[in-house]
Each structure stands twice: as C-alpha cells, then as structure tokens.
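Honest question from a wet-lab person: if I give you the sequences of every part of a complex, can you actually get the arrangement of the whole thing, not just the pieces? Trying it with mine:
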Amino acid sequence: GDSVTQMEGPVTLSEEAFLTINCTYTATGYPSLFWYVQYPGEGLQLLLKATKADDKGSNKGFEATYRKETTSFHLEKGSVQVSDSAVYFCAYTTYDKVIFGPGTSLSVIP
Amino acid sequence: NAGVMQNPRHLVRRRGQEARLRCSPMKGHSHVYWYRQLPEEGLKFMVYLQKENIIDESGMPKERFSAEFPKEGPSILRIQQVVRGDSAAYFCASGDRHSSNQPQHFGDGTRLSIL
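Yes, you can. This is the full assembly:
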C-alpha cells in the first residue's frame, strides 16, 4: 500500500555539520513529494517540494531531489544550525490526502 | 492574511465527555483535511471535507468520531465519549483546489488530553 519510510531518529548533530535524512516512498503513479518541518509545539510548515522526476526542491539551505528510479526524496543541508532543530516529515500527496512518514527528530547542538 | 486557525490549542477532557475541535481554513480555501498525530508518531489522515460535504472519511474511526464543514463557520471535528487513547494532537489543513501538486497549509493543532 501507500507508505513513506524515513530514517529513524533522533538525529543529533553539531552546528555546521552536514545533514542527510533519507526518505523512500511507495506509491502508484507519479506523486508530488514534500518535506514538512514541525518546530516544538507548532503545526507543520512546508519546507520544500518537487512535483516531477529529477526536480530539486530547495528552501532555507535544504535540498531534496525527486529520484523516480529509486523512489527516494532524501533531504540534505550542508551546514545545520541550532535553529534547524525540529521534526522533519517526508510526505507525498495522493488524490485527496497527504501520506506522511513517521518523522525524523533532529537536534543540533552548539 | 491569517493562516489556518485551530482552537482551542489545548483541550482537556475526562473520559466519557465530548470534545469539539474547530478549524477555520485559510481565506479562500474550501477544502479542509483533518489529521491525527499520536505521541512519537507521524500524522495520519482522518477525513477530507468540502463545504457541506464529506469527500473521504476513510481514516476516521468507525465510532464516536464525526466531522462537518458547514456552509457558514468553521469545520468541526467531534469526538463523543472520549477515551484515553484519543489523547493526541489533531491538525487541520486547508487547500484552495483539488490538486495533488498543491501543498496543504496546516494549523498549529489542538492538543487533546484525556484524564
């Protein structure tokens, strides 16, 4: 069935370290892919998106590339900051709902 | 330009009581989605509504849960006879048209605690 798999957290990094959060999905057709971020006590905010194969979404230094051949959408950032500490959700849309991964908690320490 | 507004932010109920969660979509949006986030888990789809219509309720529990989106006013998620397992964060999202390319915009959620 439809699902999203993310690397398990929590992930703890030092400031300025390189970040990768892996995401793979199982879906029929060619869904649009998203990364959402949830800061403590808040709702979800759209971080970036890609709507077709080989598209690269980017925002706030984060990037992810839609890889149809591997059904993946890994999130990367070259140099993380303390303010990036949050939970990150990989997701895709079907006709009428968003399918979320379980989330990956990121803690960045000074 | 207000985003998706949910209230209350926190709601405490005793077992057996009713919980009502409200969601006002972004201005101009006519599609509303409800999701539930259990502790340490991702969000699970519950229901998708347009004005006065339930489009997809495949994620709603069969009993005690209901949702509406009237012609006037906010969307309401209603949980009757709450139990401890209903404790979760409930998020509402809205969209302006039905397209899988369009991201949904989320509210800050209602955190429901059952005593």
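Two things worth pointing out. The two ends of chain B are 36 Å apart (CA to CA). Chain B is about 0% helix and 50% strand.
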